[in-house]
Amino acid sequence: MKRDKSFVDHIRVHCRAGNGGHGAVSFRKEKFVPRGGPDGGDGGNGGKVKLVVDGNTDNLRNFHYDPKLYAEDGAHGQSWKRHGRDGKTKIGRVPPGTVIYRSPALDVQEAVEMERSEEGVDLVPVCDLIEEGQEFVLLEPGKGGRGNFHFRSATNQVPQERELGTEGDQGVFYFELRRIADVGLVGFPNAGKSTLLGKISAKQPKVASYPFTTLTPQIGVVTLDGQKRCTVADIPGLIEGAHDNRGLGHEFLRHITRCRVLLFVVDIPGSELRDPIEDIQTLRTEIKLYDEDLAKFPWMVVANKMDLEGAEENLAIFKNRFPKIPIVPISAMEGEGLDELKVEMSRILDSSDE
Ligand SMILES: Nc1nc2c(ncn2[C@@H]2O[C@H](COP(=O)(O)OP(=O)(O)OP(=O)(O)O)[C@@H](O)[C@H]2O)c(=O)[nH]1
Ligand SMILES: [Mg+2]
Could you tell me the CA-to-CA distances from 247 to 158, 189, 240, 251, 276 in Å, in that order? Predict the structure, then answer.
C-alpha cells in the first residue's frame, strides 16, 4: 500500500471500543440487619467508536499525529445497586470521501508485518463515508455485567455470582481518502480548462466565455500513450482570495487536494486582460495559504491560447521567469500541442509514483 508523504490520504488507525464494566458482589450493610441481601449493581456499557463526516476537514492529518480512536470503558457496578457509568463514545471526524477498510490484524504491529509480507494484506471494505453529517458505528462496545443482586433466589440469599463485563471490539483500520482524479486542472476562470478536457478526453464539459461555467468537477479519462490512461478533473476556476473562501474557494480547493498532480492552465496571451505570470503566482499563493502540503504536490504549467496574438512573447517571458517548471504551450481550442502535453503528463505522473 502506498502512502503519500506530503499529504495524508491513507492512514492506519487502531480503534478500540470500551469494555463493559463488571457487575459487583456486594451485600447490604445496615444497622440492625445482620445479613443484608445482595445489592451489587451492574457494570456500565463501554463506549462505541463512531465516525462522523465533517465537511470542515479535507484530510486525515489529525490521525497522522494520533493514529488511534479509543472509547472509554464502562465503570464497574457498585454497592447499593448502583450502576457503573457507561463509557463515553469516541468520535473520529473524517472528511467527505473517506473509505474505511478493516485489517485482519489485531494490533498495529501485526498489521505492519502483514503489509510488509509478500502476500500483502487482505483489507475488507467497511464503509464509504460520503455526505456531510453521515455517521457510522465502527466498533461495538462491550456490555456491562450484571451485579449479584440479579442472582438472588429463594435458595440462595447470599449469591457470590456476578457477571464480568464483555470486551469491546477492537481492530486496525485503514482510512483512505478517495481521489477524484490523477490530474487536476487548476486555473482562473476562462483559462480554458474545460475546453482542454473536452479535447483530450471523451468528456464534453460545458465551455463558455463567461467565468465559472464549471461549478462541479468534471472527470474525464485520458489515454496517454498506448495503454496508459489517467483521469483528469476539470476543477472550477479559482480566484484570488479562494483560500479565504471567496467565490466558493474552499469548495474548489478541496477538490484539488484529491488529485495527485496539478496542471495549472494559464491564459498565456492574457486575453482576459490578466498577466499570466501574476496568475501563476496568485494561484500558487492561494494554494499555499490554503494548505502548505498541497503546495508540495508535483505541478506543471499549460500555456493555453497560443493561437492568440501576444502568446509567443508572453511565453518567452514566462519561461524565463519559471525556468525549472515544465511548461507546455498549447491551443486547446485548435487542438495544438496536445500530444506533447500527454507526454509531459505521463512523465509527471510517473515521477509522482516514486
Ligand atoms: N483563442 C482561444 N480561446 C480559447 C482556447 N481555449 C479556450 N478558449 C476560450 O476561452 C473561453 C473559456 O473557456 P473554458 O474552457 O470554458 O474555460 P474554463 O477555464 O473552463 O472556465 P471556467 O469553467 O469558467 O473556470 C471560451 O470562450 C473558450 O472558447 C484557446 O486555446 N484559444
Ligand atoms: Mg470550465
Answer: 73, 11, 9, 9, 20
